[in-house]
Amino acid sequence: MAEALQIFATKGDLAHVALFLWASTTSALLVWCLRELAASNQRFQDFVEQIALLTGMLEE
Fold first, then answer.
1. Cα–Cα distance list, 4 to 9, 10, 16, 52 (Å)
2. Do residues 26 and 33 make contact, with C-beta atoms less than 8 angstroms apart?
3. Is residue 57 part of a domain?
4. CA 35 to each of CA 11, 22, 27, 28, 38: distance values in angstroms, whole numbers, following the listed order
């Protein structure tokens, strides 16, 4: 890892490394947020289904 940073530092491509790290972190956070949103939507769907089931049982 240190060798790679040394190569980029000597060639002046350190800005590219910083941009890559920023983009990678941002993409990882986006994937995590979308995964959490999908899980939240599933939990809400399960809740709505249980309420509908309870309503159906109480109407009988």
1. 9, 10, 12, 58
2. no
3. yes
4. 38, 20, 12, 11, 5
3 in a domain, yes or no? Answer: no
Write out the two tokens for 5.
């940073």
Count of domains for the chain: 1
Written as six digits, the tokens of 58 are 């109480």
* SS3 (DSSP) at 13: coil
pLDDT tens, position by position, 20-55: 899 999 999 999 999 999 999 999 999 999 999 999
